[in-house]
Amino acid sequence: MKTDALSWDIFCRVIDNLGDIGVSWRLARQLRQDYQQTVRLWVDDLKSLACIAPQIKPELARQLLHGVEICHWQQPFTAAKPADVVIEMFACDLPDTVVTAMAQSKHPPVWINLEYLSAERWVPEYHGLRSPHPRHRLNKTFFFPGFVPGTGGLLREKNLIEQRQAFDKNAEWQFWQSIGLPEPGADECRVSLFCYEHAPLATLIDIWTQSPVSVFLIVPQGIVTDRVVRIMNTRISQIGASEGVIKSGQLSIQIIPFLEQSRYDRLLWACDLNFVRGEDSFVRAQWAGKPFVWHIYPQPENTHWKKLDAFLDYYTQPAGRQISKETADTLRKFWYGWNAIGAIDPAVWLAYIDCLDVLEQHSTDWMRQLTLQDDLTCNLVQYVGNQL
Ligand code: TRH
Question: Which domain holds residue 116?
Fold first, then answer.
């Protein structure tokens, strides 16, 4: 299997939000750092990359960061010599000049279309299928990430679990200090919030305000921040003792700056419960081994609900320690309410928070189970090595 020092071109077109570039950037860095590959990341919207990697200068056409060459994908695209491997992220459609240059290469590159993550049962059947190009003597392979053998696996850098396990109470305390937050109170539930605008935020904020469990909500600056502040301002609340903390009854809220991607991992590791969304933060919450709630990326005709159920079916029946049907139903009901399938009410929240200890153990079991399968980058490198 030949994979030493191959060159890789990753093409990423930012549709909306940050997941396309979040996944692409993570893959590019891992190919470089874990497999010493030569990587060019072509991105059409460098400002989005700069959100998660603040060292990026959006005005530069080319720059190097963490050993990855980041190139601004501009139109018209003057094709450089194609790499040994070309990855088309999320079917973003490569520039015609690139496809032509690939077809004219003496050794056409391995061309991979990396798809969005799904737990749906059809994924293993489609993973790895190849499709011939209609005009050029090129084949494109469809690579599907996934949670089970027979899929491409999940992004997981080689030292992630070791880093996660080394994140002890002292590291946690230092992290809270680094973002200007006090240490958690004895019976406080520290929660991170990353969701889409249509989440039932006002409902949950009202529930948390009157909940017997005190919640400290940490919100990285983003599309819901203003909404959270507006909701709180229309309720009887006062700025808390420490700067920037908004309090209302049992609920405290601190808005923090959007974090660089690897520091966001540490927020997920430090919190007791994480609300995540889309694809990349959803996966990172699973590597955090903490209870999480997924706000799935909405799709027309609510087709995303099938994806939500497909994941819940896996997540509530892992091969390892079973969770009771009652706990599984409680989790599903809360996730449904958060994703506008049914409603969230105080009883749903209380039933969920009562299971938090069981869900924390389950999250650790689930994380361990996921580490049994090869990670996405390892599978990509192996696949490419077998093609050359
Ligand atoms: O931003 P998203 O909603 O991206 C979405 C999804 O990827 C979805 O699948 C896709 O179809 C759509 O884009 C086009 O959610 P996601 O996937 O979690 O990506 C967010 C990225 O932002 C992720 O890499 C984590 C990162 N992040 C930080 O780096 N710092 C932060 O403070 C936060 C909150 C997130």
Answer: 7-156+374-387
